[in-house]
Design a protein that fits this description.
alpha/beta, 5-stranded mixed beta sheet, 43% helix, transferase activity, Glutathione S-transferase Yfyf (Class Pi), Chain A, domain 2, Glutathione-S-Trfase_C_sf, single chain
Length: 280
C-alpha cells in the first residue's frame, strides 16, 4: 500500500486500493493536467513538414536528447542525407495528443521521427520510441552501430536495451517522486533511489574497464553511449532533478569520467541545446 503524510495530525495515513480503480479526482503533481487513463487524439493539429528528408518531433528531455545526439553526430560526419528539421512537441501543453502526432506515434510520447526519403508505397516511414529511432538511423547510415553480427553488435544492443528497461525507474520512478509528486513520500523515494544508485553502480563497474560502453577506442563510441548518456550521463553531471548531492553522484568516478568525456563532444553540446521550432 502507498502512504501519504497527513499534515493535520502528523501521522501516516494508510491507503487501501478500491476493488476497481476509477479516475474520480486529479492526482496532483506537475503533469496532472495531461494525465489520463485513455490514449488517442484529443485535438486536431497538423504537424509541419520542413524541407529535409528527416522530420523530428520532440522535446529536449533526456528521451529527446538521445535522438538529437545521433542526428548531430551524423551531421558532424558531414552526412548530408541525415539533414533534418526539428519541431517542438510541448508535452506540458498536450501537443503530443494532437492528431498529427498521434498518427505517427499512437503512444503519444516524444520523440518521433518521420523519414520521407525511404518511403514504402509512397508513404513516409514513421518511427517512435527512442531506441527504435537510434537503431533505424544508425543502420540506415551505417554509423555508430556495429553492423556485423558478433560480440560488438550484441554488446551495443544489450546496453541499448538495458537503458530502455532501466531508465523508467530513473525517470518515472525516482524523478517523479523526488521532483514532481505533489508531496514527498519516503517509501517510493527510498525505493527508487536504491534502484537508481544500483544502476549507477552497474555503469561505474562497467566503465572501470571500458572507455566507452562498447570498448576503449574512439570507434567504439556508439548509440549505446548516446542513449545512456542522455539519462545517466546528465544525471551524473548534476543536470537532472537537482539530485546530484542526494544521489552522491561523485561516488562513481568511472561514470563521471565517461560522462564528462561525452559531454565535451561538439555534437553532444549542440544536441543538448538544440533549437526546436514550435508547431503552430
Amino acid at each position: 500500500m502507498s502512504q501519504n503524510n497527513n499534515p493535520t495530525n502528523g501521522q501516516i495515513e494508510s491507503y487501501t486500493p478500491p476493488k476497481v480503480w476509477t479516475k474520480d479526482k486529479e492526482n496532483g503533481g506537475k503533469f496532472s493536467s495531461i494525465n489520463s487513463p485513455t490514449a488517442g487524439v484529443r485535438h486536431d493539429k497538423v504537424l509541419p513538414v520542413g524541407d529535409a528528408s528527416l522530420q523530428l518531433y520532440s522535446l529536449n528531455t533526456p528521451n529527446g536528447v538521445k535522438v538529437n545526439i545521433l542526428l548531430e553526430e551524423l551531421a558532424e560526419l558531414g552526412i548530408k542525407e541525415a539533414a533534418y528539421n526539428a519541431y517542438l512537441i510541448d508535452i506540458s501543453k498536450g501537443d503530443q495528443f494532437g492528431s498529427g502526432f498521434v498518427a505517427i506515434n499512437p503512444n503519444s510520447k516524444i520523440p518521433a521521427l518521420v523519414d520521407h526519403s525511404n518511403s514504402e508505397a509512397g508513404e513516409p516511414i514513421a518511427i517512435f520510441e527512442s531506441g527504435a529511432i537510434l537503431m533505424y538511423l544508425a543502420e540506415k547510415f551505417g554509423k555508430f552501430i556495429p553492423m556485423q553480427q558478433g560480440k560488438a553488435r550484441v554488446e551495443c544492443l544489450s546496453w541499448l536495451m538495458w537503458q530502455m528497461g532501466s531508465a523508467p525507474f530513473l525517470g518515472g520512478g525516482f524523478g517523479h517522486f523526488y521532483a514532481y509528486a505533489p508531496e514527498p513520500m519516503e517509501y517510493p523515494i527510498n525505493r527508487y533511489t536504491m534502484e537508481v544508485k544500483r544502476q549507477l553502480d552497474v555503469l561505474d563497474r562497467h566503465l572501470k574497464d571500458h572507455a566507452y560502453m562498447g570498448g576503449d577506442e574512439e570507434s567504439d563510441y556508439n548509440i549505446a553511449d548516446m542513449i545512456i548518456w542522455a539519462w545517466y550521463g546528465q544525471l551524473a553531471l548534476g543536470k537532472l532533478y537537482e539530485a546530484a548531492e542526494f544521489l552522491q553522484v561523485d561516488e562513481y568516478p568511472h561514470l563521471q569520467r565517461w560522462a564528462k568525456t561525452i559531454a565535451e563532444r561538439p555534437a553532444v553540446k549542440r544536441a543538448v541545446d538544440l533549437v526546436l521550432e514550435p508547431i503552430t
